[in-house]
Amino acid sequence: MSLRLFIFLFLLFFKAFLFLSPSLCFQMPTNEVTRLVKDAIDVGYRHIDCADVYGNQKDVGLAIEEKIKAGAVERKDLFITGKLWNTKHDPQLVCATCQNALNELKITYFDNYLIHWPTGFVDSEEKYPLDANGQTLFSNIDYVDTWRALEALVDAGLCRSIGLSNFNVEQIKRVFEVARIKPANLQIECHPYLNQSELIDFCRKCNIVVTAYSPLGSPHSPYNKPGTYKLLEHPLIVDLALSYKRAPALILLLYQIQRGNAVITMSTKREHMADNLNACSFELNETEMKRIDELNFNGRYNLMENAKGHPHHPFEY
Ligand SMILES: *[C@@H]1O[C@H](CO)[C@@H](O)[C@H](O)[C@H]1NC(C)=O
Ligand SMILES: *[C@@H]1O[C@H](CO)[C@@H](O)[C@H](O)[C@H]1NC(C)=O
């Protein structure tokens, strides 16, 4: 399993937040997305983390196509992740949904394809289909059945590996029980305020590679922000950054890498992108790692409140 690329690029464009909290929406013009992905490939990123719900796969696809045409990279050098959104959990919809994402990205296979959340919604063009009272419309499809449909994607050559995102231990166990092809990857929110040790230990035992999203504490996201300090401004992180003469972001990326996790981050500035790739140019010692670990307080930013009350909601509130 070649899921061993450590620095990943996370393209975040939560269209859903346009109507949920317009003032906080992190909006990026489409040609900007294309430029960012081209910059990322130029500076050396090889994993591009995509998802149907980000609503920008066509723009990402333009960048991939252009860079391959220009000979900057070959398809086999890229590691492209996709994610099946909640409204497409019906096994009947999975293949067409995946194929559509591939078409948008102008590629013929995913290196890695994930069930984005365990929580199925009814099939809809809306990412968050709502009833008349503004409540999200849940479906009763079991993610275990969705998993079987993902296995068929591997059989058909559309995906090299498949995995899960935002699943808890119990849910991963249920998938394991039925899986003919085991999950290769779990993508979860992970940073010093939410160190996820239990999930990570479990994944190690199951041979699942963990990918940490929001490793910087999601400084641009419209999520709730727990904690007195923004993670990037926490005195311990700032102190370590000063002592190593590195940006605070690099301390947080290296923290994940030294724990053996893959890590994805998002950057809108080419110089930050390039600098983040320097995360492996120094080392935190054991004492420093422990001090960072001690920041944990289960501080989760991404609560998926739209699926609150869903029988498959992965988190306890
Ligand atoms: C780790 O680095 C710190 C400086 O941040 C130093 O004070 C400490 O002695 C080092 N610990 C070990 C075990 O090397
Ligand atoms: C993670 O957080 C828990 C609970 O706060 C703590 O006991 C543990 O040492 C932390 N770090 C790791 C690597 O488990």
From TrEMBL:
The record marks K83 as: Lowers pKa of active site Tyr. It comes from the Eukaryota. Pfam families: Aldo_ket_red (PF00248). Substrate binds at H116. Residues 1-25 form the signal peptide. The active site is at Y54 (proton donor). This is (Mediterranean fruit fly) hypothetical protein. It comes from Ceratitis capitata (Mediterranean fruit fly).
